[in-house]
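Exercise: predict the fold of this chain.
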Amino acid sequence: MRIFVTGSTGWIGSAAVAELLRSGHEVVGLARSDASVAKLERAGAEALTGDLDDLVSLRDGSRSCDGVVHLANKHDWAHPAENNRTERAAVETILDALDGSTKPFIIANGLSGLVDSWPATEMDASPEVGPGADRGGSENLALSATTRGIRSVAMRFAPSVHGRGDWGFVNWLAAAARRTGVSGYIGDGGSAWSAVHVSDAGQLIRLALEKAPAGVRLHAVAEGSISTRAIAQALGRAMNLPVTSIDPEDAPDHFGVVAHFFAETMTASNVFTRETLGWQPSGPTLVEDILAGGYSTD
């Protein structure tokens, strides 16, 4: 298949592109800079210049390919309304381009705020509905498009998609530890995250494109639950720093923007995902990655 990928040079996108190319698929990646174009071309993919606000490029890329993987997001937590508006418009454009085509459309989401009682399962519908909702309600919007002949699939990623080179949440925790001289956890460290190695996430994206049924929700989750205290302890051991509890009131100053997420439990089951696609994650665990030094240097 020829696959259009947004967020194609990002952390998860790069792994997905590599997996797709390795498996014999062609890739067209949305690229918003010369550096992104060069990265895609070095990998053996084709670049389409544009970004999430370039609806013409989103339409053209979607129409010209056999499937779409939508991973890009502005992640602009300071301006959530703008972030939601952009995501909604982008997904609407992609869906219009795929209308009636039976092509697969994989749309990314996270676990934050998904359920009141963790762990979440693939049967749990997202509570975010409508243009003003988080991510513009894009998961539900995409899944509703199965009635339009689109093989829409929602893929929810664990809060830690880890590996050497990760610039996500765990990298921010490591940066806070370097800055403050201690590896911290919030309160009693009882909140917990799910995790998945980035290579396993890339493989799941490829499997979903190839054979996921229309309308399903999948969880890119290899480890169901790792306590935030265990994460802090691994970082402290790897970085030779003391490990300590941070009072919840002091967490924003200590951790920065990641504090809100580190205080939140975000765990999920992967039983349906594994059974449906035969996915067998085999990458290192999060703690193994941390102890191997993947987060120990700037």
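Check your answer against the key: The first strand starts at residue 2 and ends at 6.
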